[in-house]
Amino acid sequence: MPYFVLKALESQERYGYELIQHLKDDFNTEVTESTMYPLLTRLQKEDLLISKWIEQPTGIPRKYYYISDHGRANLAEMKKSIDENLTK
Amino acid sequence: MKAIEFKDAASQRVYNSYIARCKRVVKILSVQDQEECLMEVNSYIYEYINDHHEDEMTGLLNILDRLGDPEITLREVVASKKIDQAIKTYNIKYLFQALFLNLRNGVAYILLAFMTVLLVTFPVLIVMKLITPSKTGIWVGPHTFFLGIISGKPDGIREIAGNYFIPIVIVLSILLYLLIITILKAIRKKKP
Lengths: 88, 192
Prior knowledge:
The complex is a heterodimer. By secondary structure, chain A is α+β, with helices and mostly antiparallel strands. Chain A has a single domain (about 1-85), classed as Orthogonal Bundle (Arc Repressor Mutant, subunit A). Chain A is built from four helices and three strands; from the N terminus they run αβααββα. Chain A has helices spanning about 1-10, 15-25, 35-45, 70-85; strands at about 15, 50-55, 60-65. Chain A has a three-stranded antiparallel beta sheet with strand order 1-3-2. In chain A, a hairpin with a 7-residue loop joins β2 and β3 (about 60-65). In chain A, α1 crosses α2 (about 15-25) and α1 crosses α4. Chain B folds into two domains: about 1-75; about 90-190, no CATH class. Chain B has a three-stranded antiparallel beta sheet with strand order 2-1-3. In chain B, α1 runs parallel beside α3 (about 55-65), α6 (about 90-100) runs antiparallel to α7 (about 105-130) and α7 runs antiparallel to α8.
């Protein structure tokens, strides 16, 4: 799951709910909010993601998640590992 | 946190009740962390309802079902934020809370909890040294070495610290506390 999240954030920042929808639409992976929220917190603690609250006209702000440099390096390692396993 | 307003009174009650449960779960955190958690849960609820054009109550019940019980969903988040608070503040109360919340996360935390309990015994030893100086100290003997309180005095065992016992225990307390915080930081930095 961390791989999918990092991959989804590789090209653009997303907020939690948007991320869930993106994983469902583009990766065919169903994740509930009860899984996503702790996972995003964990990835942030591990310095793989950074986040920023963005105010919205509705008054309910969104917390946008961005992949960090460390996250990109980690994602590259994961991709390499997956590719190596696939070629075996 | 700005509360979501529902047209239906029943939906509002359900929402308020869920947020109240979340507030109870995060109450142990700093005010800033509490607000952060509640804003995030609130955002998930709002975005889901906004994106699903079913009736208000159905949408609300669906997202609350997806979020799960706050006591379970927020457990890891609360435990994680509590560790950060303990590391930042060096407050022993937060350290205890963090270790208790994280006990289930592995052997390392059990070890840390043991070390913390040991840390708490040190002030007790200092008090006991003042009350019963002849029975409290660092004891050595054949095949014996321990720090603590002795009842009676078995042959061959003698106390070696004397008046330096209290300073030694204070230094040990500081070193142990720094060691606990260092291990916590190391665990926090552990990569997936």
